[in-house]
Fold:
Amino acid sequence: MKVLLTGDVKKLGWLGDVVDVADGYARNYLLPQGLAKMATDNNIRTIAKAKAKHAEERKLLRAQLEKVAAAVDGKEAVIAAAANEQGHLFGSVFRHNIAENLRAQGYEVQDDAVGLYEHIKEVGSYKIKLEFMDDLTASINLLIVPEGADIEEFRQALKDAAKKHSEEKVETAPAEAPKAEAAEEPKAENTEEPKEKPKKKPKKEQEEKKEQ
Structure:
């Protein structure tokens, strides 16, 4: 079914775009939510001005987001959270916690830009993707430390644990399989011409010699 988008729909299109979607998706979600209308000529004409204005606004927004993405890429967010001795958090870390931390550092990152689809429940170091637009992303390092812990000591402890784990993997790696013995080299063929065997004398000549 072809529908006219009346708002931006992530990974589908922008306001004013005519898109082809499954009938069920249109009837059960896009149309009831007011995100789309039937793609009639009249509806397309009606939304044309709004589409042009929105395209300009989107261009300005992208320029701003590109600056934010370039500035925040590779940076670190550090969050202290209550945890037990095994490192399990008593609560969870959500995307809004990460976004708030980044905003406190001066990076204008909105909550929905944080690509966190599962709640974090352990202390440790994580790589988090930021999704500003479908084709505009950045990544940050997230460090979750137990409340009251020294950040640098905790960071060093993580490095030491990672190094130890790497060394243990090397020690327990299976021994290298012995190399197959080299195939025996074929013996060189004898290229010398065989010596000619002495010719036997005729039987008659041998008998005559005996009689003498």
User: Anything to note?
Assistant: Residues 41-72 form the longest helix (32 residues). Helices lie at 23-30, 41-72, 95-104, 151-171, 203-211. The domain at 76-171 is CATH 3.10.430.100 (Ribosomal Protein L9; domain 2).
